[in-house]
Design brief:
mainly alpha; single chain
Length: 171
């Protein structure tokens, strides 16, 4: 990854949910918060032209690529909220939406530390989901989920060595 790209990504980190802010919240409020995150992401996608048909390798991220990563960061907060609600179906829904958002970047094999972190987070959530949730669906949906997991793992395995050890160093 070039110096410009790594400098640009230095200010991009995953968001974390403030536990002190949500601990006294009711599950209804948390569900509304999660709904607002999903609606906000959907509206941002529909209003912005986030085409990813250009490659920014090895240079800095293009504005539309940066916006996709920004939306994915917000969706990961939604995954945390769904986890607090102990709702595996919502976790899966948000992870699938998050992956769908970054899938064009994965297809381009764009080397990005933040993208690897987002995909690893999604993978950890998918591993923790109950098996019947992933396999107890129609064969088409199950195949799509398995394809998503395979693409996610392949990208991380393929791109991680090209990225500096910053992820390993922070773990």
């Amino acid at each position: 990854m070039s110096d410009d790209a790594s400098k640009q990504e230095e200010n991009l980190h995953l968001y974390k949910l403030k536990q002190s802010a949500v601990s006294p919240s009711l599950s209804t409020q948390l569900r509304l918060f999660l709904s607002s995150i999903l609606i906000s992401a959907h509206m941002s996608l529909s209003q912005a032209s986030l085409r990813v048909d250009q490659v920014s390798l090895p240079g800095p991220l293009l504005p539309n690529q940066r916006q996709r990563l920004e939306l994915a960061r917000r969706l990961l907060v939604g995954v945390e909220v769904a986890g607090l609600l102990n709702d595996a179906h919502l976790c899966l829904q948000v992870v699938v939406k998050c992956y769908g958002l970054v899938a064009p970047l994965v297809q381009l094999r764009m080397p990005s530390r933040l993208l690897v972190e987002i995909l690893l987070y999604c993978f950890v959530v998918l591993v923790e989901l109950p098996e019947p949730l992933l396999t107890g669906r129609s064969p088409i949906v199950t195949a799509a989920l398995h394809h998503m997991i395979a693409a996610l793992v392949y990208y991380v395995a393929r791109v991680s060595p090209t990225i500096s050890a910053s992820i390993i160093g922070r773990a």
